[in-house]
Amino acid sequence: MSVDFLKNKAFDFGTGKSYDVISIVQQMHKCSVSDALNHLKKFDLSVSEKKPVEEIDNDKSYDIIQVDHVRHPALIQYLKSRKVYEQRNLVKEIYYRLDGKKFFGIGFLNDSGGCEIRNKYAKICLGLKDVTWVVGERNMNREVLIFEGFFDYLTYRNMEKEEKSSSDHLILNSTAMLFKVKSKLKDYDKISLFLDNDSNGKATTKMIENDYENVEDCSILYRDSNDLNEWFCNFNENL
Question: Of 2, 71, 101, 160, which residue is 20 to 30 A from 34 by alpha carbon distance?
């Protein structure tokens, strides 16, 4: 979730919904507008004229310190725990500073130069949120495979066991980014979906099925798991 403390607005990347102060209280407490207003009366929401709010510069709230191949033992172990260590060449080791503190994690770039960061403890995006297109070679059948997160994409590439894929791959990095690619999806003869088995993933699958022809919901493969990576990890643990 992204929160703008100056405008008192919030945006949920998971659902694609925007909230103001009242609506987010309604969402959290499942209550009416009047109940939300009564709840907010408990808090002092005024801003002192003697101490104005400082403008937050989101562009300078973080710094990328170093980008490298994945070498840190903790990140290697993390990739191995997610059963995608073999695809380490598709991600980077990112060292960054956020709010004055230094961190590191697995980094995956999106098409706006933003970076999805994952490690055992963090799941954030540095910079602009966007999708990631990976164009395949010899995609004569005009097929695109759509993944919700990049770990599902790495999982599929691990299962595919091919260095170069013939199909195009689209990693949404958030289902809220679907609106950015709707026009492009019309160019494909086949759309294969590998989205999560939660309410949000199912809703996004339904939207795509309603808007396009020749859509295949591949989540049936991992119907008893939340996503492709979880299923792949459990499957390999049981071997």
Answer: 2
CB 131 within 8 A of CB 173: yes
- Written as six digits, the tokens of 213 are 């022809």
Residues with Cβ < 8 Å from 33, sequence gap 6 or more?
Answer: 22, 26
For 62-77, the pLDDT digits (tens) are: 889 999 999 999 999 9
Q: Which of 60, 84, 52 is nearest to 70 (CA)?
A: 84
Whole-model pTM over 0.85:
no
* Dist CA 31 CA 47 (whole Å): 26
Q: Which residues pair with 68 in a beta bridge?
A: 93
> Which region holds residue 76: left if phi is over 0, alpha if psi is between -120 and 50, else beta?
alpha
pLDDT digits (tens, 9 = 90+) for 94-142: 999 988 889 999 999 999 999 999 998 889 999 999 999 999 877 666 8
Return the structure tokens found at 53: 């709010």
What are the CB-based long-range contacts (under 8 Å, 24+) for 169-172? 169/133, 169/134, 169/136, 169/144, 169/145, 170/131, 170/132, 170/133, 170/134, 170/144, 170/145, 170/146, 171/108, 171/110, 171/131, 171/132, 171/134, 171/147, 172/131, 172/146, 172/147, 172/148
